[in-house]
UniProtKB/TrEMBL annotation:
<dbReference type="InterPro" id="IPR001509">
    <property type="entry name" value="Epimerase_deHydtase"/>
</dbReference>
<feature type="domain" description="DUF1731">
    <location>
        <begin position="273"/>
        <end position="306"/>
    </location>
</feature>
<dbReference type="InterPro" id="IPR010099">
    <property type="entry name" value="SDR39U1"/>
</dbReference>
<feature type="domain" description="NAD-dependent epimerase/dehydratase">
    <location>
        <begin position="4"/>
        <end position="223"/>
    </location>
</feature>
<dbReference type="Pfam" id="PF01370">
    <property type="entry name" value="Epimerase"/>
</dbReference>
<dbReference type="InterPro" id="IPR013549">
    <property type="entry name" value="DUF1731"/>
</dbReference>
<dbReference type="Pfam" id="PF08338">
    <property type="entry name" value="DUF1731"/>
</dbReference>
<dbReference type="InterPro" id="IPR036291">
    <property type="entry name" value="NAD(P)-bd_dom_sf"/>
</dbReference>
<protein>
    <submittedName>
        <fullName>TIGR01777 family oxidoreductase</fullName>
    </submittedName>
</protein>
<comment type="similarity">
    <text>Belongs to the NAD(P)-dependent epimerase/dehydratase family. SDR39U1 subfamily.</text>
</comment>
Length: 316
């Protein structure tokens, strides 16, 4: 099959390209700065010659969006929103105008669309959508607004011959350089892998190979459309996640960080504490119901596997 992946130059795109190419698919990535074979220029917002790649393709997986790992300044928030909404709109327009539209359009969304909660898990049917929940900083609602606007853009696209799925993805854990797993491991190795802000907040995650397998599964399943959670069935509290990561690497201690220490750390790292403190308890209701078989459902085993691969890469 021919896959077109707008925004496929980042962390998730690297994972998908690797898996899809290994499975023998043709992959074309749309980038604002194409730099190698299989990469085609687009601006992420307006129609252009890139639309010819979409016409006649089998699958489009749109991953484009400004990184959310940044300070939430007004300018950054605007870019986080616009890059997602405008790119989804442009992809929808290209599909609508195609003579031979793709069979399926997988649009990246995020597990952050669900409310901050630890009391129960959010699946697609009964989960609580976030925004305005009590006891959390008001500005956290903006990430939910972005996710909703992103999904809305896909929903309203007039693409009657193309099945549409929104990927509500949790943190994708891979051994790649610069990915979230490497960042967490680096903190743990510095002795900072303890609970943050109490550590009771849940972390949802998905192993990179399960992520790629889930994408292929959703491409094959003509009966599935709309939002789908891409998260392992075993989300866990942040303190347990970090403890298992320390065990996997062999690090005996992890210093706890209070909320204000997290604020300083996030400032230094030019990031935002929402990424650390929001409780994301998200489970893959629809994937499990459809019979998807997770190879890495629980974190301690997944962390062992990722550490093994990361060490293997370092040894090469
Ligand atoms: N990583 C995760 O665990 C995770 C989990 C849930 C959801 N997501 C979402 O999945 C998507 C991909 O994640 P990722 O980790 O691969 O992100 P990433 O590494 O930041 O890559 C995203 C890509 O989007 C493109 N992009 C950046 N700013 C843009 C802009 N203003 N307009 C158009 N394109 C722009 C970039 O490609 P070019 O510079 O080549 O154009 C970049 O390589 C993101 O939207 C992210 O929010 C990620």
């Amino acid at each position: 099959m021919k896959f077109v992946i707008p925004g496929g130059t980042g962390q998730v795109g690297t994972i998908l390209r690797r898996a899809l190419s290994a499975a023998g698919h043709d992959v074309v990535v749309l980038s604002r700065n194409p730099s190698g074979p299989g990469e085609v220029h687009w601006d992420g917002a307006t129609p252009g010659p890139w639309a010819a790649e979409v016409d006649g393709s089998d699958v489009v997986v749109n991953l484009a969006g400004r990184s959310v790992n940044c300070r939430y300044t007004p300018a950054n928030l605007r870019q986080m929103m616009d890059s997602r909404v405008h790119s989804a709109r442009a992809v929808g327009e290209a599909i609508a105008a195609a003579e031979r539209p793709p069979r399926v359009w997988l649009q990246m969304s995020t597990a952050t669309v669900y409310a901050h909660r630890a009391d129960a898990a959010n699946d697609e049917a009964t989960g609580v959508i976030g925004g305005g929940e009590p006891g959390v900083p008001g500005y956290w609602g903006y990430s939910v607004d972005i996710a909703k606007a992103w999904e809305r853009e896909q929903e309203k696209a007039d693409t009657p011959h193309t099945r549409k799925v929104a990927l509500r993805a949790a943190m994708v854990m891979s051994p790649d350089r610069g990915g979230v797993f490497e960042v967490l491991l680096r903190l743990a190795r510095l002795g900072l892998g303890g609970p943050v802000g109490g550590g009771a907040q849940y972390v949802s995650w998905i192993h990179d190979r399960d992520f790629a397998r889930a994408v292929e599964f959703l491409v094959a399943r003509d009966d599935i459309e709309g939002p789908v959670n891409l998260a392992a069935p075993g989300p866990l509290p942040q303190r347990a996640l970090m403890r298992a990561l320390r065990d996997a690497w062999g690090i005996p201690v992890g210093l706890p960080a209070t909320r204000w220490m997290a604020e300083i750390g996030a400032f230094v790292l030019r990031s935002d504490t929402e990424l650390l403190l929001k409780s994301r308890r998200v489970v893959p209701g629809r994937l499990l119901e459809a019979g998807f078989d997770f190879r890495h459902p629980e974190w301690p085993e997944a962390a062992d596997d990722l550490v093994r691969r990361l060490r293997g890469r370092a040894a090469r």
